[in-house]
Amino acid sequence: MDGLTWFAVVVGVTITWCLNLHERDNPAAIPIGNVLVRALPGVALYVVLGTIFSAIVLLSVLLRIPGVEQNSTLRLLTALIAGFVVPQAARLKDRVLTRTVARKYPFVASCIQWIDESSRIYCRKIINREERKLSFELLKQDGDVRQSAIHRLFEFHLIEIAHHECARLKKEHDVLEPVLNVFNVRNVQVKLKFFTRFLGYRVALDHICQVAANPLVIFPTWPPAPDDRRATSANGRGRRKYEQPYVKAYVLGHF
What we know:
By secondary structure, the protein is mostly helical. The chain is built from 13 helices and no strands. Helix 1 packs parallel to helix 4 and helix 2 (32-64) crosses helix 4. The longest helix is centred in the N-terminal third of the chain and has 33 residues, at 32-64.
């Protein structure tokens, strides 16, 4: 194969990787630039492996059908299709690699799983890592003030956050009732995760910084403390309740 044919294969593999990236779940809308820089090793491994397997398939086609190799346009088109289709065979891994197969051939199953995690789904790992790292980076500076801002913002948007989570679970065809547990969240890092998934990475950071600079813009009667002000007070009464039937109906999308 000439250099142009190899280039067509690489282009097909790259297009497949871009489609995989587009399909990756990124609920917090982490900027793709942050992901790509850290995912370069996985991208390179995916392109290399995809190019090798696609070239093997392409060579077998060229040997069996000599007319394809003689026609330059048809050869390039075949190379592009091979580079696009062959790497997507990795999607069949979860169906082929059943528990029975994994038990019988543990070493092979481990190798296939490692290659898949290090190439095709590597971006998903980076996205999850960036989402977890956000809370540590955000609270390194002015931690108490920003914790208070997160508590205020979470309380302010709580019903819409729960409604948003319910819509996400509906898309995944999951059980909806556990979404009501969002109303019981107290941990600041868990609140930050739900809040960034609700507004997106950049918008959530802007809101947190604005409220941290001027806490009285939301719930001015709250004392300037970094804890969750929904904790039960001395008289046994909490600050806000979301047990009303119409609130649950709205969150669960019943009307």
